[in-house]
């Protein structure tokens, strides 16, 4: 470091600038009952007391964004080992009534069974069905008891997550993250229909998936089927 830079930093006063707070919010999504679903937590303090929110928290002064996201995953979502990537940053001036807060949303796709332990361990958690409009409108969330009121701008965050997922579905293998290691073509089509919100032609869908080179037949068949058991496949990553 140059001497003049050392001198500059020694005299620098960060109090000359207002500093917003930064949070991370986790969009942990799966497919449940044929529709996109996300893990939500009921807020137990003001603001928006009693409303439902994405698991989130403030970024500590000594941790990176990724470290904060992993901490929230463990402490708030009661989960671990999930691969997460940044979805988007939300910084509307009035998005939080407490103060100027910018949030960085993280996104993860997980098979539905990954949520079972978290839901048992956290009485304030629910896996809510998420419906998002085709345009830029906010998402809605429902669980077994009916519609859920969402805190802050989390309806907007969820809407973007669903639309981003829909947009990536055809050109990337993102849907395989929602499936077990071994799956049938019917299960794969169910995932695509749940995300897109459309019924798909069975022969055309299967031909398209096989042509992409993403599927590896295992030679095994599903167990417990009432009729002829379907062949099981696994995802074949690109080399």
Number of helices: 6
Percentage of residues assigned to helices: 25-40%
Terminal-residue CA separation: 43 Å
- Cα Rg: 21 Å
CATH class of the largest domain: Alpha Beta
CATH superfamily of the largest domain: Nucleoside Triphosphate Pyrophosphohydrolase
Q: Can you write the helix and strand succession as a string? A: HEEEEHEEHEEEHHHEE
Helix and strand composition category: alpha+beta
Count of discrete structural domains: 2
CATH topology of the largest domain: Nucleoside Triphosphate Pyrophosphohydrolase
Biggest β-sheet, characterized?
Answer: 9 strands, mixed
Poorly predicted residue ranges: none
**Could you report the average pLDDT, rounded to the nearest whole number?**
92
* Number of E-state strands: 11
Strand content: 25-35%
Shape: globular
CATH architecture of the largest domain: Alpha-Beta Complex
Give a quick set of tags describing it.
alpha+beta; 2 domains; Nucleoside Triphosphate Pyrophosphohydrolase; Arc Repressor Mutant, subunit A; 9-stranded mixed sheet; 239 residues; single chain; two-stranded antiparallel sheet
